[in-house]
Design brief:
251 residues, alpha/beta, 7-stranded parallel β-sheet, 9 helices, 7 strands, 15% strand, binds NADP nicotinamide-adenine-dinucleotide phosphate
Length: 251
Amino acid sequence: MTVELDLTGSVALVTGAGRGIGRAIALGLAAAGADVAVNDFADEAACAAVVADIEALGRKGLVVMADVSDEEQVNAMVERVEAELGPLSVVVNNAGITRDNVVMMMDPADFDSVIATHLRGTFLVSKAAARKMFRRRSGCIINLSSVVGRRGNAGQANYAAAKAGIIGLTKSLAKELGARGVRVNAIAPGYIDTPMTQALPEETRKLIVDATPLKSIGTTDDVALAVVFLASPQARFVTGVTLPIDGGLGI
Ligand code: NAP
């Protein structure tokens, strides 16, 4: 049995990878041997810095700016990754935004933009990649859901709906692609220390830690290591799952 996770020869695309969890995932995949395309919406300098870190690990990196909710931009991005890095074997749908409010006060535009980035974005990137992976009979897709998609959260109905939708999309795509050797899984992080959660008041962070059986907030590497496992050959019999990385918060 080989225990070391080795992605040598893989080409990965990580969306929303200029910072936070996406950045850690891009670096984790590169550390395991993959060449990695780094996508983001606006912050090109941040993506270039991630690519420099990937190159320092001895792998190839590529900045691919695109809005994941725009079909034309997504299709062009996937074509460019394949033209410059080679056949895409790992896709991580990580890009995300929050526009929190209680439903009674929520602007429909904030509902739509959260669904568009998370759910439509995951659909569009998965569709473009799946068409290539299906033909090659190999590849894997990993989607970022959330503990909030499994349990709901007051003040985050748009985000929870998008993240729950991603679980349904993941299971459906796993059934559609399984016979062609393409695996599709999701990860449901709990509260992870990133710019998204650093914006929370200290009191809220304390409440979250108290509610978490392992009594801490997670790190971006906790999530990245789970992605590397799901992307690795060692996960060859794993598809359609939503793996919680949440310190037990979702129990
Ligand atoms: P983050 O720090 O806010 O980073 C999100 C990234 O997504 C940013 O780099 C952002 O780019 C990019 N992005 C936003 N809209 C985009 C679009 N339309 N197209 C392409 N890229 C776009 O978030 P994070 O905390 O690392 O979270 C990463 C993922 O994990 C998200 O899906 C989030 O929902 C999920 N998650 C996070 C936590 C947590 O505790 N942090 C928990 C559960 C799940 P710009 O800066 O250029 O806009």
